[in-house]
Design brief:
Elements (H helix, E strand, L loop, with lengths): L3 H13 L7 H5 L8 E5 L2 E4 L4 E4 L2 H4 L8 H13 L11 H14 L4 E7 L2 H18 L7 E5 L8 H5 L4 H4 L9 E4 L2 H4 L8 E6 L3 E2 L5 E2 L4 H12 L2 E5 L23 E4 L11 E6 H6 L20 H16 L2 H17 L7 E7 L2 E6 L13 H11 L2 E2 L6 E4 L7 H19 L1
Parallel strand pairs: 3-15, 5-6, 5-7, 7-10, 10-11
Antiparallel strand pairs: 1-2, 2-3, 4-12, 8-9, 11-12, 13-14, 14-16
Bound molecules: pyridoxal-5'-phosphate (PLP).
Pyridoxal-5'-phosphate (PLP) binds next to α6.
């Protein structure tokens, strides 16, 4: 039984809270003991009872350099002593200005020159969608007001972003309320869209689809999509909310195919996983269309209260400095290779059907020995993750796909422990 204060917290949680993406009947059941996370250090998390865990999915894909990083902590503290937040409507601030300049420098300075700040991945996408539609209205192509998105895509949960989503379980219920979106499974299917001249933008998670179950696109897909958009007059939105900031081995995934998008959506790892902050980068060509005289009403009437938040921008700047100071991408190359070797050791397990790796992201598909899928009612992915928790590893499955994508600062020994925990947990959960 948890200690009294932890027990009281859990009781209050079950009385008052509603958790995201969570089956609340199971959560509130007396036998379910939620972890009350209380501290973190590097790739490790500690719960209120002092038990230690490896943060196997970087706190849902957000953390980059580990928890409690002295550099990022100090930056936030220093900013806090000045001011925590001031409005970005009609005012500006130094951390936001500096961060915008850094993001432009890192992403694609020849093309992506403008930065629009918001709060979350979903809002970064919403901003791109509205910018795309308004851009075509302002440039005399207002018939372009639909979007194309891919099967199994995930771009967030606000209604506009959810319209682009292709994960049935999440999005189908609200489909009557969605924006007009053409759903395609592949690059080739884009050619089959009727009235292609009505497509404002195509949106993609480059290199790897996250919530789809860590599914990889074929190499060259993104470059092909860039060419398709150019040939068909549509804009390209790269959703790098998960892939951004080194996750795939390069600072941004699109850089691996030399295909700069018209909009780049960034969030999760932007602050190193510390604070909610998002950015939508776009080109001078798009931006210019919005610069008319006041009477032309070209202004982009969109924004969130916490746009350009100083604490978030200070954390993000510090996170980018850590990339430099600790030579993070070079060190990460070795870790990516080690992850690959360790994953290869799981291939022989009878209940592992396929393993996919993209940079420092791994998806491990579970199946019955022989290869047929488990009955979804068995919730095998969740059962394996529950077992992993007992072995000191926290992660969350996507149906029967296990996800391993720890903070980049994870030590080799910790990474071995994480993969070992997965192997043992699969064995225990299946038997
Ligand atoms: C998480 C995610 C989002 C949504 O971001 P939020 O910050 O949760 O709104 C959008 N796109 C991708 C690819 C994501 O992984």
């Amino acid at each position: 039984m948890p200690k009294p204060d932890t027990a009281a917290l859990i009781a209050a949680d079950k009385t008052h809270l509603w958790h995201p993406f969570t089956a609340m009947r199971e959560w509130c059941a007396p036998e379910h003991e939620p972890l009350v996370l209380a501290a973190g250090e590097g790739a490790l998390l500690r719960d209120s009872l002092g038990r230690e865990y490896i943060d196997g999915n970087s706190s849902i894909w957000t953390n980059i350099h580990g928890h409690n990083h002295p550099r990022i902590n100090a930056a936030i503290r220093a900013q806090l002593d000045a001011v925590a937040h001031t409005s970005f409507l009609g005012f500006t601030n130094a951390p936001a200005i500096r961060l915008a300049a850094e993001l432009v420098k890192l992403a694609c300075p020849d093309v992506l020159t403008r930065v629009f700040f918001s709060d979350d991945g979903s809002t970064a996408i919403e901003a791109a969608l509205k910018m795309a539609v308004q851009y075509f209205q302002l440039t005399g192509e207002s018939r372009r007001a639909r979007f194309a998105a891919f099967a199994d895509a995930y771009h967030g949960d606000t209604l506009g972003a959810a319209s682009l989503g292709g994960v049935r379980l999440f999005h189908e219920r609200f489909s009557a309320l969605h924006l007009p979106v053409e759903r395609v499974a592949s690059l080739a299917e884009l050619d089959g869209i009727k009235d292609r001249g009505e497509i404002a933008a195509v949106v993609i998670e480059p290199l790897i689809q996250g919530a789809a179950g860590m599914r990889l696109w074929p190499r060259g897909m993104l470059a092909g999509l860039r060419a398709w958009c150019d040939a068909n007059g549509a804009l390209l939105i790269c959703d790098e909310v998960m892939t951004g900031f080194g996750r795939t081995g390069t600072m941004f995934a699109f850089q691996q195919e030399g295909a700069a998008p018209d909009f780049l959506a960034l969030a999760k790892g932007l602050t190193g996983g510390y604070l909610p902050l998002a950015a939508t980068l776009t080109s001078e060509k798009i931006f210019e269309a919005f610069r008319g005289e006041p009477r032309e009403r070209t202004t982009f009437f969109y924004g969130h209260s916490y746009a350009g938040n100083q604490l978030g921008c200070a954390a993000a700047l510090a996170s980018l400095e850590v990339f430099e100071e600790e030579n993070v991408l070079a060190v990460l190359r070795q870790k990516i290779a080690l992850l690959g070797e360790l994953l290869a050791g799981l291939e022989s397990l009878p209940n592992v059907r396929e393993i996919r790796q993209c940079g420092f992201i791994a998806g491990i598909d579970l199946a019955r020995a022989g290869g047929s899928p488990f009955d979804p009612a068995q919730q095998m992915g969740a059962r394996v993750c529950a077992a992993a928790r007992r072995h000191g590893l926290l992660t969350r499955p996507i149906r029967d796909t296990l996800v391993l994508m720890p903070p980049f600062c994870i030590s080799d020994a910790q990474l071995r422990r994480a993969v070992d925990a997965i192997a043992r947990s699969i064995g225990e959960a299946v038997s």
